[in-house]
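look at this fold:
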Amino acid sequence: MATLVLGTIGRVIGGPIGGLVGSLVGGTIDRKLFGGATRDGARVANLAVQSAAYGEPLPRLYGRMRVAGNLVWTAGIKESRKRSGGGKSGPATNTYSYSSSFAVIVSARAIVRIDRIWADGKVLRGGDGALDFPATIRTYHGDEGQPVDPLIAAAEGASNAPAYRGCAYVVFEDLPLADYGNRIPNLTFEVVADDAPVSIDRIAVDLGGGLLAGHGAFPSVAGFAAAQAGAIRDGLTTLGTIADLVLGDDGSVLRVGVGRAVVRLAADDLGGTDRAAIQPQRHEARGADAVVPDAIWLSYGDVARDYQTGVQAATRRTPAIRIERRDLAIAAAAADAKKLAEAALRRAIAARSTAKLALPWRYAGVLPGDLVATGDEAWRVTHRTVTGAVIDLDLERVAAVPRGGALADAGRAYVGPDAPQGPTTVHLLDIPALPGALPGGVQLLVAAGGASAGWRRADILISHDGGDTYAVATSVAAPATIGALVTPLAAGSTTRWDRRAMVEVELMSDDTDLQSATEAAVLAGANLAVIGDEIIQFVSAIALGGRRYRLATMLRGRRGSEAAATAHAVGERFVLLDDRVVSVALPPEALGAALIVKAVGPGDDSVVVPSQTVVPRGIALRPLSPAIVTIARSASGNRIVAWVRRSRGGFAWTDGTDAPIAEDSERYRVTVRGAGGALRQADVITAMWTYSAADAAADGASAPLTIEVAQISAAVGSGLPTRIAFV
C-alpha cells in the first residue's frame, strides 16, 4: 500500500547548491549583535538523493533557486508485465517495466511556480513545460488553503491524507523508472518563489515574522534558501555573511538595515566643549593584520550555469596564505557574486579600525547600528553607554563603496539542453536483420528524431485494431541520424566495391553527423545505412557545410537487400543504422496485418499526433537468395544444378564451414522458366537439383531457359531467388 514518509519535516537542500546552507561565518554579526564567541548557524546537509530524515528543517525559498526536495509520500514502485512472442516464433517472453508515484516538498514557504525539473542531472521537464516522460506532474504552491492531492487521498483515505498547507510540493504520478535503474531518481527543481531578485533586508524581515522592520538599501540576490523556517538568529547570521547586516532598536521594533541616515558630527563637537563644558574625547585603535584574511572565496549557485556551484574570490595580497571560504545558499550571477566577495573583504579590512568617542548630550539619539561621520570617514556605532550627560560610543570603521562594477568570469560548465522538443519524424524500417539481432520473430526497426535542438525522446505507440486503442511498443531515447538524398544515386553492383558513385545527403538535425571509416572498419560492420529500402555501407563522408555530406566508396545491397540496389531519386530517405535505431518485436499475427503507428514525444498530444499505417512483411525473416548457382551437364544429358546457401543467421564468410540454416528446416524451390513462363517447379531439401533430359523433353523446353533457386521459410514463404540462364 502507499506510505506516508515521516510527515512533512526533512532534509531538503541538495543538488548543485546542496550543502551551501548552514554553518556559515557568523562571527562578525554575532559579535556586533549578540556578543560572546562566534556561533555557527544551522547547516542543511548536502543531499544527492531524496531524503525523509525526520526533524531536520525545510528551507524557505526566496527568488529563484534550484533545490532538491524531501520525499514525503510514495505509493512504492509499481511493476507492469508485458507478454510477447510465443508460437512458431519461439517461447513467449515476459518483459517488466516499473513506475512510481510520490510527493516531494520543495519549500516551507509559498512559491509562484516550478520551472525546470532535472532527474539524475538530466532535464526531465524543460523550460517549455514539456515532460521528457509520459508522466503526470501536479504542483501545489504552498497556499494555506490548498487541497489534498487526489492521488494521495485515494491511497491513504481522505481523513489520513495531509494537504501540506504552507509548503510547496510536487506530486509525480506513474513516473517511468527504466532510465534510472528502476529507482526514484535524484530530483532537483528550479523553484520560483519570487518573480524578481530579492533584497537581503526583505528576506530578513520575512524571516523575522513581524518582529523586524526593514531600513536601508541592501544588495539583491537572484535566489536564497533560508536554512530553517522561523530560526531568526540563524537566518540573520547567514544574511550577515552576505551583506553588512545590522540591527537597531528604535524603542518599538527591531530595525534591520544599514543604519539610519548618517549622523554628521560638527567639528566643534570633536574638538571643543559643549554648553555643559563636557570635553569630547576620541581614541582610535587598529587591529593586527593577521585578523584580516588574505582572500575571501565565496561559493554560490551560478544562474548562468543551471545553478552549478561557482566560486568568486576577492584577494588583497598574493600569495594568499589565510583564505576564508564562505559557502552561501544563494543564486547569483558571477559579477554579483564577485561584488559580494569584494564587499566582504572591504568590510573585514575596515573592521580592523575601531574608535571610542565621547559626545555631548545632544547626540543621545544616536543608537547602536547607526552611522556617524567624522570628516571623510564613516563609522558604525557598535556600543553606546550614557554616563550623566556624556554619550560614550564604540565605533567600527565602515568600508567605502567603490565606484564601477566588478569584473568576473563564471567559467565553463556543461549545461544540459533545454530547448522545445519540436515535432517528431519517424521512419519504420521493414528491412533485413541488422548485426547482432536474434533470428526469428516479426520485427520493425524504428528510427525517430526531430529537427529541433531540443528533441530528446519519443514513445512509439502501435494500434492493432485500426486505431481504437494504442499501446507503447518501445521508446526512442536518442535521435537517430535521419536525412534525405539531395542528389540521385544510380544503380550499382552488389558484388564489389563501388568506388565511382557518389551521393549527397542532407541530415534533418544539427545534432547528428556522419563520420568516415576505413575500408577494414566498413568490412567489419561500420557505417551501415539504409537508402530507401537498400542497405549500404560507405567509407567516405565529406562534410559540405550545414547538414550536408557527400558519401563515396560504397558497398551496395548489403545483408540481403540486393534487390533494392536500384537507382534512388532525390528525396529518398537516409537512415544511419546504428544503436539509435531500435527494434520493435511484433506478435506472429501482425505479419501481413495493417498496423497504425504513432511517435509521441514529450508534450505531444497523442490524439493529434500524425500516424502512419504499415503492413509488416517480415523482411528480417525472409531467406537470402542462394549464391554461386552452377549448372553442369552429365554424360546422360541431365543438367545438375548446385548452389551455396546464404543465411540471414550468419553473414560472415567462414572458410570450410557452411552458413547456418536459420530456418526450421532446409528447403529450396527450383523453378525452370522458358520464354512462355514457368515450365517446371520442384522443392528439394539439399543444395542440389537434377533437371533430367527426360523432364526437359517433356517440358518441351527450348532455349533460352532460366533456372531460379530460392530458399523457403516456414514463416514467410519463399525468399528472393537467384537466377541463372542456360541453353
Q: What stands out?
A: The longest helix spans residues 334-350. The mean pLDDT is 80. The two ends are 80 Å apart (CA to CA).
